[in-house]
Specification:
The protein is α/β, with parallel strands linked by helices. The chain is 36% helix and 25% strand. The longest helix is centred in the middle third of the chain and has 23 residues. The model has no long low-confidence stretch (mean pLDDT 89). Catalyzes the ATP-dependent phosphorylation of N-acetyl-L-glutamate.
Length: 305
């Protein structure tokens, strides 16, 4: 008898390719920063939700951190408020902060939780304010040697992972908006800060002792010689990345600074991947080649992955 050729066999081969990565990542925490086109394109949003739920059912512990720059700008415009940026950061007045909270916790987070929960009662939304998860101090920037006040923009100073750990232990998927409470107990009125979502995700990944930090963006990864070439750096060490930081485009700086902070504070790998590619998260974690750029500590153990 001849062996029948099954048309589904390639699917089995793909699953087997994922086996070593399933084994390696099982039970590990993965922090994913949700942003870019993946946040505004309906098909990409749906694929993102599928990927995160797949990770959860594959035995990983995903945590999603999100901002909402385009949505915040759109809402400010509707209200007749001006969006102002300095050194790549949104100047956040008290009025703007009200809009930031409303959009992040009331719109972006709600939509993402809804997409994830189409696949089961998994996702729980929260902000960095909740349970004092993120505390921050006022952030200033420097332009032409002068200190510039950005308003209610903050730097994370402390993270209490208790609420997130409890959700993870209960099998849930925390979805965290990048807002933090003031770290100064003397401040009255519960002042809150707008936190860059890349920075918040990196700080949370480090505090959770995550296996990896994944940052979705609108480019393929970190380019080796942009704009002269579109070759993507597949892997580099923390020290190699640190040398490149001064040459990077402003939009990539907070993402790569976040990756650098993560791997220097206990996270095994940090990855920047193309959120414009459907199922890019699964391609990065569960295939031999991976996609995007992976940052590793200065003394990496083994090769890619």
């Amino acid at each position: 008898m001849t062996t029948r050729k099954h048309t589904a066999l390639p699917k089995a081969q793909i699953l087997i390719e994922a086996l070593p990565w399933l084994t390696r990542h099982h039970g590990k925490t993965v922090v994913i920063k949700f942003g870019g086109n993946a946040m505004v394109d309906e098909d990409l949003k749906a694929a993102f939700a599928q990927d995160v739920v797949f990770l959860r059912h594959a035995g990983l512990r995903p945590v999603v951190v999100h901002g909402g720059g385009p949505q915040i700008s759109a809402q400010l415009e509707k209200l007749g408020l001006t969006s102002e940026f300095k050194a790549g950061l949104r100047v956040t007045t008290p009025e703007t902060m009200d809009v930031v909270r409303m959009v992040l916790a009331g719109q972006v987070q709600r939509e993402l939780v809804g997409l994830l929960n189409q696949h089961g009662p998994l996702a729980v939304g929260m902000t960095g304010e909740d349970a004092h998860t993120m505390s921050a101090v006022k952030r200033y920037t420097e332009i032409d040697g002068e200190r510039v006040d950005l308003g209610r923009v903050g730097d994370v100073t402390a993270i209490d992972t208790g609420a997130i750990q409890a959700l993870l232990d209960d099998g849930r998927i925390p979805v965290v908006s990048s807002i933090a409470r003031s770290a100064d107990p003397s401040e009255k009125g519960g002042q809150v800060f707008n936190i860059n979502a890349d920075t918040a995700a990196a700080a949370l990944a480090a505090a959770l002792g995550a296996e990896t930090l994944m940052v979705l963006t609108d480019v393929e990864g970190l380019y080796a010689d942009w704009p002269n070439s579109d070759d993507v750096i597949s892997q580099l060490t923390a020290s190699e990345l640190e040398k490149l930081l001064p040459e990077l485009a402003s939009g990539m700086v907070p993402k790569m600074e976040g990756c650098l902070y993560a791997v220097r504070n206990g996270v095994n790998t940090a990855r920047v991947i193309d959120g414009r590619v459907q199922h890019s998260i699964l391609l990065e974690i569960f295939t031999d080649e991976g996609i995007g750029t992976m940052v590793v500590p200065d003394a990496p153990q083994g090769g890619r992955k």
